[in-house]
Amino acid sequence: MHWEETKVFDVNAVALGVNELDLMMAAGRALAQEVKYSINHGSLIGEIWFICGPGNNGGDGFVAAEEFLAMHAQNHEIKVRVLATHEEQKTLASRIVCARLTEGDIPIHVWDSGRWSRPLPTDRRILMLVDCMLGIGQGGPGESALPRGRIAEVMDWLYSRFEVGFPWVLACDVPTGWGSSRPLNANMTLTFHSDKIGLTLENGQHAPGVGGIKVAELPWPGETVDPGPGDMIRYPPLSSDAKKGDRGRVLVVGGGPYHGAPLLAGMAAARMGADLIHVAMPENAAQRADWPAEIIPEILPDKNHLSIASVERIEERMNSGRGVQALVIGPGLGTDDETIAAVRRILVHAASKGIPTVIDADAIHAMPVAAWPVDLVGVATPQLKEFKAWLGQISPYEMFKDALNYSLWRENSLDEEKAALICTGELDELFGLGARYSVCDGGSPRMAMGGTGDLLAGAIGGLMAVGMSPWSATRLAAWLMRRAGEMAEAELGPGMVASDIPLYLAKALAQRLET
After folding, report:
1. Residues near 392 by Cβ (< 8 Å), separated by ≥ 6?
2. Which of 67, 78, 170, 507 would you call most buried, defined as having the most Cβ atoms within 10 angstroms of its Cβ?
3. Regarding beta strands 108-112 and 115-116, do their DSSP bridges make them parallel or antiparallel, or are they unpaired?
4. How far apart are CA 137 and CA 15, in angstroms?
5. pTM as predicted
6. Rounded distance, CA 488 to CA 169, Å?
7. What is the DSSP code (8-state) at residue 52?
8. Is residue 468 within 8 Å of residue 236, measured between CB atoms?
9. Do 343 and 310 form a contact (C-beta atoms < 8 A)?
10. Residue 485: its pLDDT value, please?
11. Is 479 left (phi over 0), alpha (psi -120 to 50) or beta?
12. Reduced 3-state DSSP string for 423-485
């Protein structure tokens, strides 16, 4: 599970009717149970300090403190305290649970102007620090997680206070500052739903600073892990000082027998916010096409279908200037033997350059039988018949497990988001590295028309070009396609056609960005 998916799934769960406060209560109870388990294996005389930040991670700590105190109400040898880094909480749920604590029997100490709002004892043993300060946040592990402001000050105070004999530390979700130059190392980490990328190393050992790892389930509906509105969390925000090209260049290679399919893919990529869209087609197909103003034509040397003769021209486009940030290959290509041979050459080049690639439609025929191309970063988008012809009796799980073994990719790392497969149909099935799986349903029955597969491929390519990983781009594109179909049908009815959809893709994207 990618660390950003923590927030993705929270938003999805709320959209499915789950109360955010219920999620916080469940996480807090699980944390309290882990505190109880750890304390029962040691001394029962002393204090437990729950150190709570200003967000939902801190809210989990407020709940855990209250729940743990209730478990030990008759044990007067254990004292529970809350050390809050901020007086004000950022989220409604955390404000609610904090307000409830202030009316109870748990002392709350707030950090203010370099000291605590009320004195802390110096003559009692501190059995445990429960780290609920930062959690994962948006940045994930690394210097973006470096504690700052009041949280950094509290960490300074902790290191000074416990210069000798640091207490046992239990981290909520992940240790504060995880992966940065200044983490609060934990003896145990309780994370939620599933292990997070980076907590466990490729060799199966726990990463330095996280201690042991336990996983607690949350009361999410099963559909929470499927694509939903929470996937918008991972869409890269626009920059106020952006320049042309900063949001990526997409190259669509298609056409020959058909000319509309690659243009549909290009328009979908543009509506995902990519800056520059190039479509490469054989000459005769390009002459038949009605080129939209947003698309830059790349006329290939071939007349009727893609062949080896055009590969050098395509590779030049992929290599020149800033290169391309995503390649979409397959829409409308046809399955001529020369075409399939040319596609194989292009895929090898894309893999060597690390260019995220969408393999769609006829290009699926160029994929190695029941295998993923070596080191190819990207997404395959077969419909069911193509899926069965390509994989045969091999499951996607087996294929991706083999891909990890023969590629340079590392398990339990961000590499596990580098490849994805979406089998399209009435129900889209998504498969990824590390046994990832989800489904996407909904939409309009009218989306069964020709051209929607080309739109999906282009949308994935556009999202990868703006900076999303293959797995996250596939999830978001699948969900946006379904929503765009619903919006288009509501306005246009059964007469809508594939070329209507790109505008509604943009509207679905904008609607979710606003909310």
Report:
1. 369, 370
2. 170
3. antiparallel
4. 20
5. 0.91
6. 53
7. E
8. yes
9. no
10. 94
11. alpha
12. EECCCEEEEEHHHEEEEECCCCHHHHCCCHHHHHHHHHHHHHHCCCCHHHHHHHHHHHHHHHH
- Residue 41: pLDDT band (50, 70, 90) is low
Q: Which residues pair with 131 in a beta bridge?
A: 51, 171
Q: ∠ at Cα 204 (202, 205), nearest 5°?
A: 105
Distance CA 241, CA 246 (A): 10
Q: Which two three-digit tokens encode residue 98? A: 């904090």
Q: What are phi and psi of 54, to 5 degrees?
A: -90, 0
**Exposure string for 203-227, b = 16+ CB within 10 A, e = fewer:** eeeebebbbebeebebebeeebbbb
Residue 278's pLDDT is: 97
Number of other CB atoms surrounding residue 384 within 10 Å: 12
Going along the chain from its start, the domains and CATH numbers come out as: 5-224 (3.40.50.10260), 245-384+448-514 (3.40.1190.20)
- As a whole number of angstroms, the distance between CA 142 and CA 177 comes to 8
Q: Dihedral of CA 322/326/332/336: which sign?
A: positive
Closest CA to 355 of 317, 307, 312: 317
Helix (H) or strand (E) holding 288: helix 283-288
pLDDT, mean of residues 122-134: 92
Average pLDDT over residues 156-181: 91
Residues 6+ apart with CB under 8 A from 51: 61, 83, 85, 129, 130, 131, 132, 133, 154, 158
Q: Whole-angstrom Cα distance, residue 213 to residue 202?
A: 15
Q: Which two tokens stand for residue 264?
A: 């549909």
- Residue 515 in this model has a pLDDT that exceeds 90: no
DSSP codes of every residue in 173-218: SS-TTTTSSS----SEEEEESSPPBTTB-TTSPBPTTS-EEEEE--
Q: How far apart are CA 263 and CA 255, in angstroms?
A: 9
> How many C-beta neighbours within 10 Å does residue 43 have?
10
- In tens, the pLDDT along 385-413 reads 999 999 999 999 999 999 988 888 888 88
> Residue 399 is encoded by which pair of tokens?
């294929």
> 């999805």: which residue's tokens?
12
Question: Which helix (H) or strand (E) is 77 found in, with range?
Answer: none
Residues in the chain, how many? Answer: 515
CA–CA gap between residue 283 and residue 302 (Å, rounded): 6
Flag whether pLDDT at 424 surpasses 60: yes
Cβ atoms of residues 70 and 185 within 8 Å: no
- Please choose, from the candidates 63, 68, 69, the residue with its C-alpha nearest in 3D space to the C-alpha of residue 25: 63
